[in-house]
Amino acid sequence: MKKSVLGFVIDQWTVVPPVETADLSGKTVLVVGANVGIGLEASKHFARMRPARLIIACRNEAKGKVALVEIERETKYNGCELWIVDLANFASVTAFADKFEREGGDLHILVMNAGIVQPDYQLTTDGWESVLQVNHLATSLLSLLLIPRLIAAGKMSSTPSRIVIVSSGFHYWITPAEEVKASSKPLGMLSSQEWCIPEHMQSRYHESKLLNVLFVRALTDRLQSVTPLSVVAVNPGFCHSQLLRVWSEGTFSFFKIALAIKKRLLAWTAEQGSRQLIFAAVGGRDNEETMKGGYVSLGRIEEVADFVLSDEGHKMQDTIWKETIDILTSVSDKIGQIVRDYLVVPDSSIN
Predict the structure, then answer these.
(1) By C-alpha distance, which of 330, 318, 238 is closest to 276?
(2) Tally of domains within the chain
(3) Mean pLDDT, to the nearest integer, of 147-156?
(4) Torsion on CA atoms 206, 207, 209, 211, rounded to nearest 10
(5) In a 3-state reduction of DSSP, which class is residue 248?
(6) pTM for the predicted model, two decimal places
(7) Residues 305-314: contacts with CB within 8 Å, 24+ apart?
(8) pLDDT on residue 242
(9) Mean pLDDT for the stretch of residues 142-146
(10) The CATH number of the domain where 313 resides is what?
(11) Catalytic one of 205, 292, 295, 332
């Protein structure tokens, strides 16, 4: 599928479907990136469904506590917990996963919503370009580390568990550079200072959202069909949120004015965007096979970008998967064991 600018405008002017609901009694839900915007609004919707536990994972404890109070005040739900994790620090992610192994129990729904936009080249303490680490590597790391808990919950439940990874419609508008597609280690190239010139950094967020789609499809390709776990990518749409605050702050610029106009004319509220996350988490239960590896937008499964479906897209998907696993295996010795115990070598692509 191709998505034109006109198609984007039409989507943004489309009436957003009402929020999906489900009975979450006895279930545990974890939302990563939940203190503001669509993550906070999604957490409120989950709270209204009364899960046994709702864990909101935030980077900033003070902001997380404010979100916790807001969720409890608006929903009258008192089962919400605040946990701290920083995706810009691999040690924080592995510590979070270790804590969940000790204290979290089974996990039925994982929503990976945390993400950043960073126009300038910045390295994390782990030595990776920050957007690449937060939006792809650390998101993939935590998702993989929590797979044992998700599968255990799925086996005990009448419905498969879900991993929801927040992507974006921007993945339609990015095709990796020829040098990146040809590289045996594209992530290393994308993270290098030599590659991250200002021109390339303009598309970094778009690239990270494409990586999210590739990861969802690659992981689904490696889960046995009988595994009680579905992995879903979701497009929340263009929303009012703090994601683009780095562009909104600072001195006067024509880009800042254009962004403000674009928001005024096209942006959904954060609550409207959060409905897409909820559908990806609890919707489509009447056709679970369609949800597996699917891409949710406007409350339904949509076809992904033509590049993703192409032969070169699938080749890059496999290359990115291998490099991601190699990188994350060096971060946590649990990754290799999880891959061996829960995943298989794929024998076909996702159509």
Answers:
(1) 238
(2) 1
(3) 97
(4) 170
(5) helix
(6) 0.94
(7) 305/1, 305/2, 305/3, 305/171, 305/172, 305/210, 305/213, 306/1, 306/2, 307/175, 307/176, 307/210, 308/171, 308/210, 308/213, 308/214, 308/217, 312/181, 313/214, 314/349
(8) 65
(9) 98
(10) 3.40.50.720
(11) 205
Active site residue 77: no
Residue 351 lies in a domain: no
Question: Pick from 351, 350, 342: which is nearest to 161 by CA?
Answer: 342
Is the Cα dihedral 13, 18, 22, 24 positive or negative?
positive
The SS3 of residue 266 is helix
Which residue in 64, 242, 231, 101 sits closest to 56, CA to CA? 64
Task: Give the mean pLDDT of 149-164.
Answer: 96
The mean pLDDT value for 249-274 works out to 72
Of residues 3, 44, 209, 334, which has the active-site annotation?
A: 209
Q: Is 295 a catalytic residue?
A: no
Question: Which residue in the list 140, 168, 191, 241 is annotated as catalytic?
Answer: 168
Q: Is 241 a catalytic residue?
A: no
Residue 350 lies in a domain: no
